[in-house]
């Protein structure tokens, strides 16, 4: 029996029980001025929300039956003898109510529902946030769009709520004690700004469409003035005016300095007609300006952070400093490029930057991509036991019009083309005999545009077969692109190969099958002789088409070999 009780005790102890949530008193404040037509309905709707404990209507000096309607509906009423404005009414309710969570809801909402009220308060009850503010579809919002949003975007760019002046919000009362609660129409935006800067959690909740009275123009004028005053006061209080004014000027001057440094470096290496001493002078002036104003930016930023280092101030700093950060990144990338191109040998420092080659194809040549960026490439020695292989990046192969497993003939030596090794995407590995024949050295840096010049005259056996068919074209590499002609090979009316390249006018070209010449065709004035023939049981047709494209592949003539060789079983 005792062993059973022991086991039961352990089982009960292992069961996790959720602690009951601490009771939180919820009060709703409704500021009202001459709202006898709607205040009772608003109160009745709020009473349907089960967790609302108290509803208080602050009657702001109404001259109609607002007070009576509110009392009849079951609300507590606090009266102002005279009209003091919405902000004062909210402040009165806030200071006189004892609760844990307080919500502020307008008295003139015609289509208020308990779901809308619950959506405002529930995230706070569930511990998801400290403050909620609403967003909703409505016809008004002129002060928000024309006044609040532009100023917030200028002084507090990290605040990006859709409706910072929604008018309906809720919060933990203890949190509101940390905030300067404005007594006018600036209360909404003041809470939003304070919460953001102080790092208080604030959530914007969507409560759908609402319908309420449009404010008259006079009220909008007053509202706009009070919203502007609140935002400007907060901007001064939190150092945003200084950030925009002083730091903004320092940042602009720092960018000028950085730009001058970049201009000086660019002029030294790429602008030949500007004397060297002028380029150096531009760079030195840029360094002085950049260092001076960047130091001022750092010092001023430290001062502001010491005054207020909480919340989302860092986000605003990043946005304001972003142009300078980009300029610094550009300069660092340029400097790193020059450092990477620096060579020190025999007491001589040489800096020779090599740029990549942007290629945009404007002709009709069949290419893998219409736009590509290639090179520069670095020459290196072949890997041990690869004396008959050339390794090169795919970009270099595209430039030369070749591919993996093709064959190159350099000074009668035959080399197989292979992919470069992982991590060597810009390295061309050449055996020593090939380097000597091409007149290049290890560690030589070659721009993509020079690649064709270096390999000019090199013979290539290039497989253009489709699928399992092997069709080899024989060509030499030209240093310049020239007008090319396309051709397609059909075997028994099925396409087995296609390519394009340079044919010389009034020249004859041989076609072979299994290394046996079976057809010779003459190219004359951009046209070929008829090229239909049979081989055994096969019918073979080669169609030539001029498509106004260019190539560096120059096909060999009859006296140099077979320009096309088909291998059939």
Q: Which secondary structure elements does this structure contain, and how are they paired or packed?
A:
Layout: H1 2-14, E1 26-32, H2 39-47, E2 54-60, H3 66-73, E3 76-80, H4 86-96, E4 101-104, H5 114-125, E5 131-137, H6 142-155, E6 169-172, H7 173-176, H8 187-198, E7 202-209, H9 217-237, H10 240-270, H11 276-307, H12 313-340, E8 342-345, E9 348-351, E10 357-360, E11 371-374, E12 377-381, E13 389-392, H13 394-400, E14 407-410, E15 413-419, E16 427-430, H14 432-438, E17 445-446, H15 448-454, E18 459-463, E19 470-491, E20 494-501, E21 507-513, E22 516-524, E23 527-528, E24 532-535, E25 538-555, E26 562-567
Parallel strand pairs: 1-2, 1-4, 2-3, 5-7, 12-16, 13-15, 21-26
Antiparallel strand pairs: 4-6, 5-6, 8-9, 10-11, 12-17, 14-15, 14-18, 18-19, 19-20, 19-25, 19-26, 21-22, 22-23, 24-25
Helix pairs in contact: 2-3, 6-9, 8-9, 10-11, 10-12
Spell out the key features of this protein.
alpha/beta; seven-stranded mixed beta sheet; twelve-stranded mixed beta sheet; elongated; 569 residues; 29% strand
Beta-strand content estimate = 25-35%
Largest sheet: 12 strands, mixed
Distance between the termini: 91 Å
> Strand tally, please?
26
Query: What's the gyration radius in Å?
Result: 40 Å
- The computed structural class is alpha/beta
Helix content: 25-40%
- Please, how many helices? 15
